[in-house]
Design goal:
The chain is an alpha+beta fold. The strands form three sheets. It has a two-stranded antiparallel sheet. Strands 3-4 form a two-stranded antiparallel ribbon. Strands 5-6 form a two-stranded antiparallel ribbon. The chain folds into two domains: 109 residues, Membrane-bound Lytic Murein Transglycosylase D, Chain A (Roll), CATH 3.10.350; 46 residues, LysM domain (Membrane-bound Lytic Murein Transglycosylase D, Chain A). 17% of the residues are buried. It has five helices and six strands.
Length: 179
């Protein structure tokens, strides 16, 4: 019992710290929500930020969404999550909630393996067969570019081959190339 009495002040201090962290976190979340739905005046009419459509797609956040997966689904690369955060002026990109409407800007997608900007399509189709043997240095984006002329088609290859982790392919593996 005396050990518990000695540790009681530390337990109380720990709970106080947790309460303060929670309150700070809640304040940041509330501030982020306010930034997302600011209303601006435009020539006498009220327009909400989430209704801007000129050359931009609107995405409604669903339960379990995060920017990385939204970017993967819409651009083929999670690295474009940073572009979505910037376009929506998110102060904390990891705090998005269901129902929020995000602007998906028109942009050049990034390679899902390196994060570097790459052209989405190429004229150079060098893989024409229904099967492909993975070579040293290959990754699905590159294989899709060579097979279809479209790096975004990497998802088709991953699904056809039931790859548990599309980032891991090994030299010598034989992949089905759906046609």
């Amino acid at each position: 019992m005396s050990t518990l009495q000695k540790k009681y002040p530390y337990i109380l201090l720990g709970l106080t710290v947790l309460l303060v962290v929670y309150l700070v976190f809640s304040g940041i979340l509330a501030k982020t929500k306010l930034n997302m739905f600011q209303v601006k005046k435009t020539t006498g009419t009220t327009t909400q930020k989430e209704n801007v459509v000129n050359d931009r797609k609107i995405y409604v956040v669903k339960e379990g969404d995060d920017l990385w997966h939204i970017a993967e689904a819409n651009y083929g690369s999670g690295y474009n999550a940073y572009d979505i955060a910037a376009a929506n002026k998110l102060t904390n990109a990891s705090l998005i909630e269901p129902g929020w409407k995000l602007v998906l800007p028109s942009l050049t997608p990034k390679d899902p393996t390196t994060g570097e900007v790459v052209p989405a399509q190429t004229e150079k189709v060098t893989i024409t067969g229904a099967r492909y043997t993975v070579q040293s240095g290959d990754y699905l984006w590159k294989i899709a570019l060579d097979a279809y002329g479209d790096g975004y088609a990497w998802m088709k290859i991953a699904q056809a081959n039931k790859l548990a982790d599309p980032n891991i392919i090994h030299e010598g593996n034989i992949l089905v190339i759906p046609r």
